Amino acid sequence: MTYNFAFLDEDTKRMLRRALLKAVAIPGYQVPFGSREMPLPYGWGTGGIQVTAALLGPDDVLKVIDQGADDTTNAVNIRRFFARVAGVATTEHTVDATIIQTRHRIPETSLREDQVLVFQVPEPEPLRTLEPREAETRTLHALADYGLMHVKLYEDIAQYGHIATSYDYPVLVDGRYLTSPSPIPKFDNPKLHQSPALMLFGAGREKRLYAIPPYTEVESLAFDDHPFEIQRWEHQCELCGSGESYLDEVIVDDRGTRMFVCSDTDFCGQRRPEARA
Amino acid sequence: MSALLKVRNLSRHYGQRIGCEEVSFDLHPGELLCIVGESGSGKSTLLNTVAAQLSPAAGNVHYRQRDGEWLDIGSLNEADRRRLAREEWGFVTQNPRDGLRLNVSAGANVAERLMALGMRDYGQLRGIARSWLERVEIDPARIDDAPTGFSGGMQQRLQIARTLVTQPRLVFMDEPTAGLDVSVQARILDLLRRLVNELGLAAVMVTHDLAVARLLAARTIVMQGGRVVETGLTDQILDDPQHPYTQLLVSSVLTT
Amino acid sequence: MNTTLILELRDLSKSFELHHQHGARLNVLRGLNLRLHAGECVVLSGASGAGKSTLLRVIYANYRPSYGTVHLRHDGRWIDLAKASPHEVLEVRRRTLGYVSQFLRVIPRVPTLDIVAEPLLQAGADVHDARQRAGGLLHRLNVPERLWQLPPGTFSGGEQQRVNIARGLIVPRPILLLDEPTASLDIGNREVVAQLLAEARAAGSAVLGIFHDEDMRDRVATRLFPMQALEAA
């Protein structure tokens, strides 16, 4: 059985590219698009896959990560999917990739201008938990009426003494649109700001695309007396010794022994020979 | 004294049915005006049309904003209308559940309008929220409780605090005490009376309760079938009603 | 003697049309003329049903006259209350025209002191001064201080009446309308009211009132104005 290059037919890819151009032209604005049925269920990255499919050319090198790791089911599946339907080269090395599709992380390795990061987005609307009506949230975006978002941050501080939102932390893009960075840890939010790489976001079930173009202002919302802060660990990665990367706490045996390791497997792996040396 | 709000020949229809028809009145700064009438008399339709929550079929509403400029409410775009609703107006609904955000704390409910106006200091927001809870006689210790756990009267008082915290110049109230126990009603009416005086608010309040009009409003409009049948000083209307409908309304009340 | 004309009623008529009682029409006042000067105390006399209370209410604009004029001097100019706008009437009531009825309209939960002070606050006084004046008046009218912070809803008839008088007299207004304000007061307190009225008159106010008690009437009246019931038309 043969597929069209990168699975989607050319008309669909053209529709996606038009939507992506609009998204890039209006940073942070959610552009509706005709999301297609994909050979994966919603929630497995159908939005990101469609964006990647619209971007891929035969010379691209694709990397797919899930929670920072190249070797989880979701990452492996998507990587194999595109290797099969587009025949493109794949890699686990951030520096070698031209397109990186990601779920829940931004790689630790700094991205370049010739790279594109594609995010899988479950819920593109940052106001949704507070305002269920789509017509109303769109009006709020149109009017840049974002007091509501601070209600959520207020609730965090009131309940936990600090802004407890630790992932999908809302940002204001280019001083205009309130945007969900997808469920990346807020640790990664600073990487959105003035990023040299183009960042594209796809929500398959919600049928929305949006973008943060290269070198765009991205501000994480906060209060004057409770400024934005990223997570910090008392530990270092037990595999590579990194003290500046995002760490996962993993249980390594049946007795509950825990250890802290980098969530970015490529970053960690690259450092380990150095650490050994 | 110059008016704050001028309503002229305002009509609103629901298909063939009249919501309100050819209504005109002025509202002055610091004045509380009651609109009375029985269910279906069009008083809530009038209130919502004046407050730009419904669009009129005919007529217009002019409002003099803080900077002295007169605005034609009907010609405002959505952005300006919302700005006005956020910065200069307030709306208190009959059912506090419609006016409150039930899934966030009492403090956030009070602080929301301030945050919408751009206040970004958490400590200051807390302080103001606390003082407003006190003003509406809610224990400030309950600032982090969700309003779902509050009694109906407390919820209504919370809605009042949430509405008045930005010190609006004009407040619309739709039967704010209907559906509450009499003792709870008295407390809210007293609270409204006090706050309206203290803040120098202008307000338009819809009520079917003539005693509420007597207590709060210097002037009253009586509506029947969508039309104004009588208007004037509240005590005049209640003590010397001219229109047959007003006479019926007044004579139907047990005590006013 | 000050003889400044302050209130003039001309050809005043009042009838009530009762739409729900077969359109019955009650004629209470017809073609009434009255002039009131500063410093006077005119007492309306006549049997009950003669329209005395109705007349006071028409002057206060609580009732709308059917015909005629209610001219009074407000802020140095003449104004016809029969034709005045509601806002003008409110302004006249705030500063020029006072009315004390027989009964206190109790406002739930509002303490006595604040009920008395309220008209002065509305006339522009500050809270401290208004409360002080209110306390002074309540004191003179023998309302015990322990009651001042309570709402008067549970007070005796006499106590409520004295609270009502204090509220009615706290703003020095050029015209005072009194509808049997002393009906349930004892002699001592009537004397206090008489003194308060004398002080108001001395300060230039004109008083128009109804006093059924003859002693009181003789004590305060400078002139009587007789009234008679109209035949039912």
TrEMBL record, chain A:
<keyword id="KW-0479">Metal-binding</keyword>
<comment type="function">
    <text>Catalyzes the breakage of the C-P bond in alpha-D-ribose 1-methylphosphonate 5-phosphate (PRPn) forming alpha-D-ribose.</text>
</comment>
<dbReference type="InterPro" id="IPR010306">
    <property type="entry name" value="PhnJ"/>
</dbReference>
<keyword id="KW-0408">Iron</keyword>
<dbReference type="Pfam" id="PF06007">
    <property type="entry name" value="PhnJ"/>
</dbReference>
<keyword id="KW-0456">Lyase</keyword>
<comment type="similarity">
    <text>Belongs to the PhnJ family.</text>
</comment>
<keyword id="KW-0411">Iron-sulfur</keyword>
<keyword id="KW-0004">4Fe-4S</keyword>
<protein>
    <recommendedName>
        <fullName>Alpha-D-ribose 1-methylphosphonate 5-phosphate C-P lyase</fullName>
        <ecNumber>4.7.1.1</ecNumber>
    </recommendedName>
</protein>
<keyword id="KW-0949">S-adenosyl-L-methionine</keyword>
UniProtKB/TrEMBL annotation, chain B:
<keyword id="KW-0547">Nucleotide-binding</keyword>
<dbReference type="InterPro" id="IPR013563">
    <property type="entry name" value="Oligopep_ABC_C"/>
</dbReference>
<dbReference type="Pfam" id="PF00005">
    <property type="entry name" value="ABC_tran"/>
</dbReference>
<protein>
    <submittedName>
        <fullName>Phosphonate C-P lyase system protein PhnK</fullName>
    </submittedName>
</protein>
<keyword id="KW-0456">Lyase</keyword>
<dbReference type="InterPro" id="IPR017871">
    <property type="entry name" value="ABC_transporter-like_CS"/>
</dbReference>
<dbReference type="InterPro" id="IPR003593">
    <property type="entry name" value="AAA+_ATPase"/>
</dbReference>
<dbReference type="GO" id="GO:0016829">
    <property type="term" value="F:lyase activity"/>
</dbReference>
<feature type="domain" description="ABC transporter">
    <location>
        <begin position="5"/>
        <end position="250"/>
    </location>
</feature>
<dbReference type="Pfam" id="PF08352">
    <property type="entry name" value="oligo_HPY"/>
</dbReference>
<keyword id="KW-0813">Transport</keyword>
<dbReference type="InterPro" id="IPR012700">
    <property type="entry name" value="PhnK"/>
</dbReference>
<dbReference type="InterPro" id="IPR027417">
    <property type="entry name" value="P-loop_NTPase"/>
</dbReference>
<dbReference type="InterPro" id="IPR003439">
    <property type="entry name" value="ABC_transporter-like_ATP-bd"/>
</dbReference>
<keyword id="KW-0067">ATP-binding</keyword>
Automatic annotation (TrEMBL), chain C:
<feature type="domain" description="ABC transporter">
    <location>
        <begin position="7"/>
        <end position="232"/>
    </location>
</feature>
<comment type="similarity">
    <text>Belongs to the ABC transporter superfamily.</text>
</comment>
<keyword id="KW-0067">ATP-binding</keyword>
<dbReference type="InterPro" id="IPR017871">
    <property type="entry name" value="ABC_transporter-like_CS"/>
</dbReference>
<keyword id="KW-0456">Lyase</keyword>
<dbReference type="InterPro" id="IPR003439">
    <property type="entry name" value="ABC_transporter-like_ATP-bd"/>
</dbReference>
<dbReference type="InterPro" id="IPR027417">
    <property type="entry name" value="P-loop_NTPase"/>
</dbReference>
<dbReference type="Pfam" id="PF00005">
    <property type="entry name" value="ABC_tran"/>
</dbReference>
<protein>
    <submittedName>
        <fullName>Phosphonate C-P lyase system protein PhnL</fullName>
    </submittedName>
</protein>
<keyword id="KW-0547">Nucleotide-binding</keyword>
<dbReference type="InterPro" id="IPR012701">
    <property type="entry name" value="CP_lyase_PhnL"/>
</dbReference>
<dbReference type="GO" id="GO:0016829">
    <property type="term" value="F:lyase activity"/>
</dbReference>
<dbReference type="InterPro" id="IPR003593">
    <property type="entry name" value="AAA+_ATPase"/>
</dbReference>
